[in-house]
Amino acid sequence: MQKTKQEVKEFLKQYSMSYEEIDIEENCKLFVEEMEKGLKGEASSLQMIPTYISLGEKVPFNEPVIVLDAGGTNFRVAGCYFDEEKGPIIENYKSYPMPGVERETSKKEFFETIVNFMKPLLDYSKKIGFCFSYPTEALPNKDGKVLQFSKEIKLSELIGEAVGEGLLKALKDAGFSDDKEIVVLNDTVATLLGGKATYPDRLFSSYVGFILGTGTNTCYVEQNKNIKKLPDIQNKLGSMIINIESGGYAKAPQGVIDKEFDLQTANPGSYTFEKMISGRYQGGLISAVVKKAAEDKLVTKEFSDRFDKIGEITAVDINDFLYYPYSKSLLSTCCLEDSNDAIVLYHLIDTIIERAAKLTAINLSAILSKTGDGTNPCKPVCITCEGSTFYKSKLFKDKLVYYMKDYLNDKKDMYFEFVRADNSTLIGAAIAGLMN
């Protein structure tokens, strides 16, 4: 068993895919450098997008807000307020198909459809918090201009448009003359705010929003004085949430197989960090690693032949194998019973996920290193987490916690806490709508 594990380690080291070669301290410094360049408006793989959304002091009690959440295949609508116990109360919740999923949808139809979704709630509040989970440029008036959509969403006319402005116009065109205020934010920012609302009586030194599911992203709270690409903001006291767009980080140590796999993706050279850690690419990357291992004869020829026939694998297939390696799962059926195939496959997957955990620890640790928050163990940094890869991967979370504690707690004397917030995007959108 130990010999097999060592062979896998040597194989991955040969192709620069080993987690053991990654120095957290060195890579944290590189990540922080990219953060600082992005805040200055210099060329950087981290966009460091100002959101113009601040945490504020207190969420008002018993004040209603309409919340909208456009993400994936669903469009969610609800009313929300916070009671005297500081708890969010979600009312009149409805979920609809996201416009533009089934067919190309015009800008006019998109906004008219949303107005129809909102009709039961239009008298609920004058305030709207809109979580819009697609690449969007945040505007100083807290609106958001659409930059692009994923392949699944067919809304080409909406690209370049301000979402909030378009929705308010559609409301007036439909005869709703009551003026409303709207705040547009992305899902990572909403996650951060949702975490703050879920633990209102906890003392945290700061807040981070972290998503690791199909894709990945992080956001955090930055002092205005450090946002040098916004001179008007830089001279004002206070802070705002910065959307890092960390999936685009380009200084992570790629291996040979990473680079070969990247060339096979739809956007070579773009979002390389996301391709090393997120669920969308996990199956493809591990598949590339396994095929290279087959070329180097770490597995039997029979395994290689069977693996070639199964086609694309997913993060779900990988998890099925990790939980049930000797079952009838897709990957298990590739392994010969009287061979080390299953053990080799396990170690290959384990090592790639270990590397993903270490890279994620670098992303999150760099944020604390940049801000200097979390030095008091009684007031840790609150890291609110969302995403299927974070919560459902059999191996990932424990490995991440290990690297975070080893580096931040033991070496840097800095402290953090991972928290989960139910309905974080809805609640975060509510906070943004009420406070900004």
TrEMBL record:
<dbReference type="GO" id="GO:0005536">
    <property type="term" value="F:D-glucose binding"/>
</dbReference>
<comment type="pathway">
    <text>Carbohydrate metabolism.</text>
</comment>
<feature type="domain" description="Hexokinase N-terminal">
    <location>
        <begin position="8"/>
        <end position="195"/>
    </location>
</feature>
<comment type="similarity">
    <text>Belongs to the hexokinase family.</text>
</comment>
<keyword id="KW-0547">Nucleotide-binding</keyword>
<protein>
    <submittedName>
        <fullName>Hexokinase</fullName>
    </submittedName>
</protein>
<dbReference type="GO" id="GO:0005524">
    <property type="term" value="F:ATP binding"/>
</dbReference>
<dbReference type="GO" id="GO:0006096">
    <property type="term" value="P:glycolytic process"/>
</dbReference>
<dbReference type="InterPro" id="IPR001312">
    <property type="entry name" value="Hexokinase"/>
</dbReference>
<keyword id="KW-0808">Transferase</keyword>
<dbReference type="Pfam" id="PF03727">
    <property type="entry name" value="Hexokinase_2"/>
</dbReference>
<dbReference type="GO" id="GO:0008865">
    <property type="term" value="F:fructokinase activity"/>
</dbReference>
<dbReference type="InterPro" id="IPR043129">
    <property type="entry name" value="ATPase_NBD"/>
</dbReference>
<comment type="pathway">
    <text>Carbohydrate degradation.</text>
</comment>
<keyword id="KW-0067">ATP-binding</keyword>
<dbReference type="GO" id="GO:0006006">
    <property type="term" value="P:glucose metabolic process"/>
</dbReference>
<feature type="domain" description="Hexokinase C-terminal">
    <location>
        <begin position="208"/>
        <end position="434"/>
    </location>
</feature>
<keyword id="KW-0418">Kinase</keyword>
<keyword id="KW-0324">Glycolysis</keyword>
<dbReference type="GO" id="GO:0004340">
    <property type="term" value="F:glucokinase activity"/>
</dbReference>
<dbReference type="Pfam" id="PF00349">
    <property type="entry name" value="Hexokinase_1"/>
</dbReference>
<dbReference type="InterPro" id="IPR022672">
    <property type="entry name" value="Hexokinase_N"/>
</dbReference>
<dbReference type="GO" id="GO:0001678">
    <property type="term" value="P:intracellular glucose homeostasis"/>
</dbReference>
<dbReference type="InterPro" id="IPR022673">
    <property type="entry name" value="Hexokinase_C"/>
</dbReference>
